[in-house]
């Protein structure tokens, strides 16, 4: 549908058309942001140029502006520059800030004083180390849009309910996986923790999962965790054995059955000629790469007719493995 210049400010209309936006995109942006109606072409051009100057590729700018057209209406020195400068102090690598803006352009529409500073203070109070603060926000810039009272505090309370200490451990989990804060407690985190309990994990095991593998808590029970559990049962593992496997290597519940678990089980039994029960004593078996680690080491041991446990075979780097079994070229 063709847009009349009289319908929207003709000055800003030409700004968009000059940069290749079609009428449909322009219409969508005006619906999203009423402030565009009175926007000045000069301000929009200035903000566009500033975003380019901080390392955002020009080909990505139309996508950024389409997601958050408000960016073009904000005061450059009142809003954009202070936020970018503050974010820059949190980053350690060039282009980290530009990358965060590309991920979540709305970060620029938030206030440093009203949103960013309270957010940093909230995480510091939970024991997040200063070096990790910037990493968290630049990795998941959407954090700035969450309410501290109704969203982030609830997530902290949930993690504390698992027995994690508020003055350090809760903050460490959030720093390790900042995306955990985007999930619903009621629809995702609570059902997942209850599922893990039902599998046989004790409270201290749950804490270990949260501390070391928080991504497991973020996955859907019915779509991911339960199908993986069903696969382990189909392999012949009993309930107690499954609890031992999940406790020893929690990502076993979120690894792809077809691409990860099934090929490793098949290799263990059919190629290595081992009993499936051996992985219960060494659940980290599922952590190792099939081609780079399992197949290569099995081949070397088989050539020398050496028998050993899975942990002896895998729980060391390549150099130590070769030394342990006398497998250096030329060795007797």
The CA-CA distance between the termini, in Å, is: 80 Å
Order of helices and strands: HHHHHHHHHHHHHHHHHHHH
Number of helices: 20
Shape descriptor: elongated
Helical content, roughly? 55-70%
Please tag this protein with its features:
elongated, 332 residues, mainly alpha, 20 helices, 62% helix
Describe the 3D structure.
The protein has 332 residues and is mainly alpha-helical. 62% of the residues lie in helices and 0% in strands. The radius of gyration is 26 Å and the shape is elongated.
Summarize the SSE layout with pairings:
Elements: H1 10-18, H2 23-32, H3 41-53, H4 61-67, H5 76-90, H6 96-103, H7 112-125, H8 130-139, H9 148-161, H10 169-176, H11 185-199, H12 203-212, H13 214-217, H14 221-234, H15 239-248, H16 257-271, H17 278-281, H18 290-303, H19 310-314, H20 318-324
